[in-house]
Design goal:
The structure is a homohexamer. Helix content of chain A is 37%, strand content 25%. Chain A is of the alpha/beta class. In chain A, strands 8-9-10-7-11-12-13-14 form an 8-stranded mixed β-sheet, with helices on one face. In chain A, helix 4 links the parallel strand 4 and strand 5. In chain A, helix 4 runs parallel beside helix 5. Chain A is globular, with a radius of gyration of 20 Å. Chains A and B meet through strand 8, helix 9, strand 9, strand 10 and strand 11 of A and strand 8, helix 9, strand 9, strand 10 and strand 11 of B.
Chain lengths: 341, 341, 341, 341, 341, 341
């Protein structure tokens, strides 16, 4: 099998720490040919560090000189749309960081173009690859949960407004805690339900702590330039009496430093994701099941592998372009619901 | 001060264990004159047990022979409306068990008639009287919470479908877990916010476990006659970006046997009710505050006292007729939201 | 259905606290007619306390005057044999305290006579009736354990040599910790395996602490009259590579005050009895299953009911005469193994 | 004092990680001159890594060219016998990995030849050198245990069938969990008792999990080639009413991942090895003694030192040739007992 | 042996709950003949409740009419002196509640008179009779502590200013936390050292919380009439470099509700009283010893027995008149040290 | 701003691990020019390791050749006095390791000369820079403690007599546990109170364990050359009823390996330092406040910065020359109090 030629767009931490190491471990399937970043020197340094031949500061040069088969997009959220459309136009498969984009229509357009071109577009929701999530999927498949009818999903930080990057800049990020953190657990909750589209969406966003300032646990943020929500809550209602409760926060007056979890309630059993436990009946008695030996795995490696499988037309657990479009639309509906109040 | 003459409507457990003992401790303010129940012998026995002079099986006889100043209504939910209206018509103050009624219009009519007659109508949401709730109210008043903008309220049982009474009978109870359990924590959540009316309500109800049957932890129920929801979830959105997430269950595949709690999130601090803890900043650092010596108190005695204070025109923390009407309407909107799916 | 006329032989604690209360709760099946004890005054007092008509100090008088249908034998171990044989001769069903007897041949003779007379003889191993044991039996029946091939059974006390009664008197008791405590868990272990007879038995008994004296946790014992084993260990080997390890102690230099438990190892799953847990695979992962809501039940009432069911020819979980004979023979083989060293 | 010239037989992990590092730290007593392995290149690489001059793939060459004073045997179990006999024949002291051999007669022959040649043959049961075991020996010597009369010894893994090497190959290993793990705790138990020979041995071996396959926690094994026992249980009975209960498993449906421990019961006190605790009487009261500051030590270094001390005729705690023969015979009696069923 | 005729002076709780029940259990040694209290009706009621023949409101009548052999003094602290002197003058043994008196000279005079009359005078420091203290004394006697050279003794309450009685009245009580609570642990500390007299005493008393008021955990106190110390700290220095640190509080901003304990440091071992633990070396290693099975005993019964033993001239652990005088002098020196600042 | 030229006196661990790394991080304020030690080769090696230009074995050469602006004194306690006086004479600021000196008069002379020369002399009590201590100071400043009236300060080791250096040599160290460990917590306690001078001091020192020998947890010490106290206790009494209890030990029969802590009691609140907790009233209830997110900081870097700030005439939290003289005098008074017994 010939190797896919891959280029990295965006030369920041996530490229350096997640995507490039994963791709290098998959050298039997991919050849990393280029890094393209805003700052050529930085791109060059990153390429050198990882033994990648080319570095660019313009995607045009990249496509002209390297003709990659696939690109990995690790740029700020507001660039995902144009860079994906351009890559698809150059007949590249696209593995794009989350969230898909900053507007629902963008994500839909991206999905449409990928479908039209017959290319793989996928999003890097790598939490799908944890041992806990895989076990949940097996439990669901084995019928241990029965019909799932309600999910609580939350990704909360007490004072985790990042003190670096663009996290509090609305134009670049498209939003705050929901856009950055909430999408991870929303993707999982939707995935558990088969990625349905909700009938109704109701939500609120908040910013009182972010705008007031105070002690930070992930560096210090500037309350004067804080433009996004520090927290969001929402309720999604699906056909056949199925619901999701969603919460996300950068800052919230709660006890835990960080709290990311899902509770999945089904007719036969319920599951909590972290630590994974199952609540059901065994031998006619109410039973709690623990799994003490789940391994921690390299979830980026597994998710990149899943993307490559999708490119090869194999079954894959990666988040598809269509799923990304559904998710992005829900995010937009939550923000719209919050605004009209 | 002359004593209020009081009569008890409904001779079941809640009269025997809660209301009558409380009223007997308040003998300096109330004289218990009669018990009125469906079954005269049972009413007579209860009256004798507590040294109450009269027993009736018809409210007409009660009002004719005893002319009470106040009645306590401890009958099934579907009788609350007619018995309250009748009592008000006989110029009695009314202390009615929760929920107020089984339809929003009923609760509104009850409130209207009480207002028109200048009588006190109040509902027995006695969880307002716990030490924890009183402390929360003091923390709010002292500004320790700042502006409250989101509340999680839940009252969950894993397999607590009562195996006795009418709890699974829709005509009598008007609903299931939401009507019986959820109203308690909904009342508290609304009270913390100043009892606003929500702009929007979205909810779902479920009955898969109730209809399937299985192991019970509060006696055994009959899945074949199970007509109500075994669980309900809802989201209430209020003006100025304020929200409540509400969950209630008789049966849910979760770990804890029983789990009743509220989390209140404010701009200065957040509180968890049980065990009471406060999450805020002290001396410039993130701090968690515990209160290890809160006493357990006789919450029924305190709520009955609050009712009597209201009758006397004094400040009172009892749930008013107007609050009851707001709550009942929200419950109805949740059921309606759940039905139209 | 006509009531069985029952008599109690032995008027001590176990009659007073266990058997008579259980039989009184089963008044729809049994009529308690007499107590027979060594000391007529004591027997009379016990009969009066429980509203039983007759009291005797000779079994001959009992059988002549009352003609009972069944007897419950609560006398010291060394009387079980003669009293059972006499009762069977008088056509009574017999519910005998554990251990069956103090010699294997006695238990075999008792079983033979019961079989010959078509009467029910059973032993009061009431630990068969705990919620945990019932759950284990259901797990086994549901195939959750697979084939059981090894059991660890122990009943250990650190310093629990009873300071009262005949517990250290060999002629009366027939033995020490094995005869008094070990038989309980041995019965359970054998029951879990289908009550097979072992191919080989190897064991040892010890008495160094009992004979040395020291601090007691169940009263004080006299080391000078200590005649029995303070501890015993044994290994039973059954056909098809199945084994039981058995330990029992009145006194042992171990940490726990009291420690009674069984570990059951099967090809599909293993179980620990207290607190009940199951160790197996679920959804392809190693899993531990807990059952947090097992109820404590009245095990004597349930075991007496099981005996009556056996008398009525219904399926029953009571320890049968045949099982008692197998168990008694194993106990004797352990003692013999220990002696010949 | 002149240095002993030492050679390593077997160039695998245990040579690389245990024996060679220990010997290098003892450079004032030993000179490592050669490594001899099946695969010359691998032996050469290991020798180079550790700065050892010679590498061989034939023991004949080794003895001819290097004339070592001692050899350390780190080869598979089935080679221990011939390599030891050959080394002794070449007048070498022998430090052999456990188990001594795969048959009782082999271990006896090895001991006989060593005795006849006046050479030191010892086995690497390095658990004798832990701080806990040393403390137990001091407690025994100080009389804190009194007379020891029963020991529970176990070395259990839940799913620890090694997924590498020859651990499931009967011809190479001579057995499974008993041969690989059980011998460690059996050696300790025998050592605590003075290494007596048992009067009687009864045991069983099992293989249902090993042959069925499933989840592994130490790599994955192939159930189709699984030839050894996955678990073994045994009871050893010694003169004067002393007993050992022994359990070992590669795979067992129990809770703990790994559980290796000994409980030693004596007339004055009892000890649990891990964490070390003593259960006895102090000042007339039942007391539990903990030792919170036991250090972890380099047990291989200490055991290798003990071997060298033995070679020098000094007192030593290393497992002697005679002890190894006793242990090997017990292992064989356990297997024989298990087979004849 | 003829019975001692005993009278109770002071008819409050401590007579009712402690001394009278203890004396009634010792009916083979004592005959309770009278209760004498300020309020005759109350004294009469107490006497009737316990089946005591006589009741008085004047000690003169008591001595004239009953001629008791011993009296138990349960009156407020400021009456201990005169009542003891009067009782001794009437040739009665005296068992007096703690503290001995409210001035050092009083306690010395009491001791002198008792000695002169050859009567037993003792104080009810009943904490000497706990299982923990008895074990400490045995450990000391067995040499497990070596030479004791420092003791930390404290009896602290967070907000335990009693809301009843005279506890905050200086004239009646003689002091606050030190006089009421501190004396208990001071007595134990002195007893452990052999009741030496200190060379030097340095201390302080505090009253900021008592005078400020606030939340109480033992009822509510009135800060306006708070005259005593709410806390006291002191250091006692004895010959040969031995020291005691002492703390006592009715109110202190510390975590625990109540905290009473002693730490005893000796050359061979140290002990903490609650829960009792010993810190020493065993078998050459640092060891911690726990005693999990200490029984709770009836310490009043044991201390009253000790008093009677003293009356009979037998060895006794009761606090003697001489010890009481030493203790009272130390208390006075602490108060004097605190005042002169 | 021109850089201060700094020299290090004493080339041991504390220079290498603490002071030099801190000074190198402050290269914008300080230039490290020389190391001066007893052993020139060692001083040279240390200088080379850290890139420092000069090394000396005589302070005279140092001052002649380098003319430093400041010196850091890391030599044994008995050299602090002469080296500080010499440095001040050469117009150097001095940052001296704790304790200030080994006699009170020395510390006073040092402070006097520094004041006279207008130079900064400060001591390295770096525990003033922990997050916990800074938080305590903020709590005090915010009034959360009210008036502080008692402090318990202790620094205890169970068997922490250092097995290296001069720690047991009285001439070099000036004392034992009090001089080495106690001074740290004494400095903090005095600092919390505003560094007052006590009216009265009472104390004792002990050496029974140090002179007896035994198991060590910080290496092994030689009991035959043990000249200092292994433990010390003291009580300091200040004007206006304020007190400090102080304990320090190298060796004590207590449970914890190491236990360093302060409890600070004030009229409004009390604090425990480790883990930091506040005990007070909030909203009318007794409350305990925890601060779960205090960061560990580089306390040496912060204390060295504080010294430099003091040199620059800025506000500083470093221990001043005057404070050091007060502390040294208290230490001397404690030793004197202990001696005269």
């Amino acid at each position: 099998m010939s190797l896919l030629k891959a280029a990295i767009l965006g030369g920041g931490n996530i490229a350096d720490n997640n995507h490039i190491p994963a791709l290098k471990q998959l050298a039997d399937r991919v050849e990393l040919v280029a890094v393209c970043g805003r700052d050529l020197a930085k791109a060059r340094a990153l390429a050198d560090k990882h033994g990648i031949a080319h570095a660019f500061d313009s995607t045009r040069s990249l496509y002209e000189q390297c003709a990659p088969d696939m690109v990995v997009i690790c740029t700020p959220n507001n660039l995902h749309f144009t860079q994906t459309m351009e890559a698809l136009a150059h007949n590249c498969h696209v593995f794009c960081e989350k969230p898909p984009a900053i507007a629902a229509q963008q994500a839909q357009d991206m999905a449409n173009l990928a479908a039209q071109k017959g290319l793989t577009l996928a999003y890097n929701f790598q939490l799908r690859q944890t041992s806990e999530w895989e076990l949940l999927m097996r439990c669901r498949a084995d019928g241990l949960l029965g019909d799932i009818y309600h999910i609580n999903a939350h990704f909360l930080r007490r004072r985790g407004i990042p003190g670096w990057g663009y996290f509090t800049n609305k134009a670049v990020q498209g939003g705050g805690a929901l856009m950055d953190l909430g999408v991870h657990v929303l993707d999982l909750a939707l995935y558990a339900l088969g990625y349905p589209t909700p009938d109704q969406v109701l939500g609120n966003t908040f910013d009182l702590i972010g705008k007031a300032g105070g002690k930070g646990l992930m560096g210090n943020w500037d309350p004067k330039t804080f433009e996004v929500e520090d927290a969001a809550t929402a309720y999604l209602s699906f056909p056949n009496n199925v619901s999701i409760m969603l919460s996300a926060s950068f800052a919230l007056n709660t006890q835990a430093d960080k709290d990311r979890n899902l509770e999945i309630f089904g007719s036969k059993g319920g599951a909590k994701l972290l630590p994974f436990s199952l609540h059901t009946e065994v031998a006619g008695e109410l039973a709690d099941i623990q799994f003490p030996y789940l391994e921690e795995t390299d979830i980026q490696l597994k998710n990149t592998t899943a993307f490559l499988d999708a490119c090869d037309g194999k079954p894959s657990t990666v988040c598809t372009a269509e799923q990304g479009a559904i998710l992005q639309e829900i995010v937009e509906r939550i923000y719209r619901s919050a605004e009209k109040k």
